[in-house]
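User: Could you check the structure of this?
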Amino acid sequence: MTKITKEQANEELKKRSQQVTEEDVDTVLNKQKEIEDKFKTGGPLGRYIEDLKLLFAIVKDYVNGSYREIPWYSIAAIVAALLYVLTPIDLIPDVIPVIGLVDDAFVVAACLSMIENDLHKYKEWKLKQV
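Assistant: Sure, the predicted structure tokens are below.
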């Protein structure tokens, strides 16, 4: 059985983040339902469903210009992580039941860790908007 480490997930996310384009941002936003469905399966991604909502919210607020207090690199990391989840062929192909989503969960976890400070700032900003 293939196994991915947290270090491999971090490296994969960093590599993919450097290649994110505005077109990739649009793709992620247009495929939101498909990505959400992968998180709702109850598998390894299920524990991140609330985080997923926050990630989509921050990307949308960045794109529409209402929140720009986040570096592009953090937006790119979010988009790269969500594209990774969307892509069925990655370090461990998603067609392998349960195990195929473990690497996706590691990449999402790496993203959340990488942008933790930016997420806290965004949450504070978002609470003030209500």
